[in-house]
Amino acid sequence: GNCTNLQIIQLGYNYLTGPIPQQIFDLSSLIALFLNQNHLTGLLPQEVGNLKNLEELHVSNNKLFGEIPVALGSCQVLEYLIMGNNLFEGTIPKSFEQLKGLQFLDVSHNNLSGQIPMFLGKFPFFQYVNLSYNMFQGEVPNGGVFTNISAFSIAGNSKLCGGIEELQLPACLVKDSKERKRSLNHRAITVVVTLTIVLLLFFLLAFLCRMRRSRQQP
After folding, report:
1. Percent of the chain predicted with pLDDT > 70
2. Given the DSSP bridges, would you call strands 87-90 and 104-106 parallel, antiparallel or unpaired?
3. Which of 73, 84, 125, 194 is placed for a possible disulfide with 108 were both Cys, Cβ 3.0 to 4.6 Å?
4. For residues 164 and 53, what is the distance between their CA atoms, to the nearest angstrom?
5. In the prediction, which pLDDT does 96 show?
6. DSSP code of 170?
């Protein structure tokens, strides 16, 4: 923790156990952190967001669990984020939208769920994305890296739909159904409002006619 000018930590492919030492996340000089292929456990703490200069983070093939820290979105110069083969759960954080310089993202073989964020299809520098063997569901983005079948992997996510034709996934009928339901609800509301206005006009007209007759009577 006192090595304040340290730029690279390479401790991959060992038999290290226990949690990641908290002092590592105080080394703001770090540009690369390799902790992959060990037996590390525990959370990846929110303090990882302190590593503002981090370009590479490799924590794959450990036993890390919990949600992916939202604070990773603060590491805006990240190019390589390799987190596969752990026990991460939850969704891909919305804060990842800030990581526009990402070139490689690997979160495969975890327990992640929810929808694949559409913003991942807008990152300009992506070379490869591996989202395979999680529990993602819903529509696959069809922009950016997701237009090249060899540049991404979504295998092992059985509830995905849409995407480019080469994926041969079913159409997103659930989404279409929701849109149809929303459209029908909108039409129903429009019909009810229209009928209400017509009835009010009818009663108003009837009332005016009655008032006119009553005034004409001697």
Report:
1. 91
2. unpaired
3. 84
4. 35
5. 98
6. P
- The Cα 101–Cα 113 span in angstroms is 24
Size of the chain, expressed as the number of residues it contains: 218
Please count the CA atoms within 13 angstroms of the CA of 113 that sit on its side-chain side: 5
Question: What predicted TM-score, i.e. pTM, was given to this entire model?
Answer: 0.79
Q: Residue 176: its pLDDT value, please? A: 47
**For residue 82, how many C-alpha atoms fall within 13 Å in the half-sphere facing its CB?**
18
Ramachandran region, residue 217 (left: φ > 0; alpha: ψ -120 to 50; beta: rest) = beta
pLDDT greater at residue 184 or residue 75: 75
What gap in Å lies between CA 164 and CA 148, rounded to an integer?
Answer: 9
Whether the CB-CB separation of 55 and 33 falls below 8 Å is answered with: no
Burial 124-160 (b: 16+ CB within 10 A, else e): eebeebbbbbbebebbbbeebbbeeeeebbbeebeeb
For residue 11, give both structure tokens: 């401790």
- DSSP string covering 32-50, please? EEE--SSEEEEE--GGGGG
